[in-house]
Design goal:
With about 425 residues, the protein is α+β, with helices and mostly antiparallel strands. It has helices spanning about 5-15, 15-50, 65-70, 85-90, 120, 145-150, 200-220, 225-245, 260-270, 280-320, 325-330, 335-375, 390-415, 415-420; strands at about 55-60, 80, 95-105, 110-115, 140-145, 160-165, 170-180, 195, 245, 250-255, 275. About 60% of the residues lie in helices and about 15% in strands. The strands form two sheets. It has a six-stranded mixed barrel with strand order 3-4-8-5-7-6.
Length: about 425
């Protein structure tokens, strides 16, 4: 029997056991590959979205929640703040850019963001097509690339938003938006939002509030007996809201590093209930938490690799013991020590290589499932982006397999032919 034939026969004989060991190695490598790729891409996307934002001013509450809602559009806002906060920040010499955002409506699951054209200074994106332009009037809308692709809306089309930040809210049919611009894909949060002037959001919610007040008056038998009285009420309502129009948050870029030490404290000390959330601080904490969880899962993945390697070496020694007479016969018939070494070594190396390669593809398949099922909370993930990390993980598994395979392989090369043939 030649060495290759002996190797094939050995694998066939212990096929079930080798499949178990191969699966353990593949899943171990897959876990490490998936987590490393996930961590790398998420960190890159998150840092990219927040790179131009030094601070976010929002209603009193969790700083992380403020950032996740106002910057990444993933959480619900902590509340609203007055325009005075925006005005004070804009006149502060330590602030280079202060961009308001106002939320409350959505379209097909995508958030409608009331803001100013400066929003695209913080989240840079090019316009797609020469007909696209920034919003100029109330109910002009600029669509992110993902919004446009999902809705099939084009320049000049109209749509109506729904109350709330998710699907299923009441539609504001009396306030249609007109698409005036579509942004090119960036891979960031701007792909998933609809931008419109602040006045659009205010108009929708003031009308909604007015409608609710009228319904309340009707239920209570409120005065609607004269046209004059109704006009007076509308006038009072408009005056109140013109003076009390609020925003959700302010995205801030500082003019100097010194501002980072002064302005957050100044904002937190305001008497009107404002929280200064610093993305660099909160994202560092979030990343540390993610890495801690990823480390635990990676530990489990490395345990699977270790168990698979233990299975390999035990399997190789078992195969060596069970076929010791065959190997001795081959040696007696003229096979060299190198040939016997190559049989056992080749078996372990082949299994290690197969497990490592299979693990890399399985890892990206797992990443694809994460991408499809969860969309990673809106973060764009390229499941099939192979990197040098994949090569390093697979290479480490293969190297470990080669080292482990060499131990029983050396034992095979040193078989005592006479003793082996005399064993019963």
């Amino acid at each position: 029997m030649n060495p290759l034939g002996f190797l094939v026969r050995t694998l066939k004989t212990d096929l079930n056991k080798w499949i178990v060991n191969l699966s353990l190695l593949a899943f171990g490598v897959a876990g490490v590959v998936c987590l490393r790729s996930l961590e790398s891409q998420v960190a890159s996307n998150v840092l990219s979205d927040a790179r131009n934002i030094d601070m976010v001013a929002g209603a009193r509450g969790s700083a992380l929640q403020i950032i996740m809602s106002a910057v990444f559009q993933l959480d619900v806002p902590t509340g609203n703040i007055t325009q005075q906060v925006l005005s004070d920040l804009k006149t502060n010499r330590g602030v280079k850019l202060a961009v308001p955002v106002s939320m409350g409506d959505s379209f097909s699951g995508f958030r409608v963001i009331g803001t100013t054209p400066d929003y695209l200074e913080l989240f840079p994106a090019e316009f797609a097509g020469k007909d696209s332009q920034i919003f100029k009037s109330a109910f002009d809308a600029v669509l992110g690339a993902e919004v446009a692709a999902s809705s099939k809306l084009r320049i000049g089309d109209t749509f109506v938003g729904s109350h709330g930040l998710g699907n299923g809210g009441e539609q504001h049919a009396q306030f249609p938006y007109k698409v005036v611009g579509i942004l090119a894909a960036t891979g960031g949060v701007v792909d998933r939002v609809i931008l419109t002037p602040l006045e659009s959001v205010w108009a929708v919610h003031e009308a909604q509030h007015h409608h609710a007040e009228n319904e309340s008056d009707d239920e209570a038998g409120g005065p609607h007996t004269s046209h004059h009285h109704h006009d007076e009420k509308d006038h009072d309502h408009d005056t109140i809201h013109a003076n009390d129009r609020k925003i959700t948050a302010v995205l801030i870029k500082f003019s100097s590093p010194l501002s980072a030490a002064i302005i957050p404290r100044m904002v937190n000390d305001r008497p009107d209930g404002v929280t200064a959330a610093v993305p660099a601080v909160e994202l560092t904490r979030l990343t540390a938490l993610f890495r801690g969880v990823a480390g635990l899962i990676s530990g489990g993945a490395f345990l699977l690799i270790a168990l698979s390697m233990l299975g390999f070496i035990l399997g190789l020694y078992r195969a060596l013991r069970e076929r010791k007479r065959e190997l001795a016969s081959m040696r007696a018939l003229g096979a060299s020590r190198a040939a016997l070494f190559s049989i056992v070594f080749g078996e372990g190396t082949l299994l290690s290589f197969s497990g490592a390669v299979l693990g890399v593809f399985l890892g990206h398949f797992l990443l694809w499932i994460v991408q499809l099922k969860f969309s990673l909370l809106g973060t764009r993930i390229d499941a099939w982006q192979f990197t040098m990390d994949d090569v390093l993980v697979a290479g480490a598994a293969l190297t470990l397999g080669i080292l482990i395979s060499s131990l029983p392989a050396f034992s095979a090369g040193r078989i005592n032919v006479i003793e082996a043939l005399n064993e019963k």
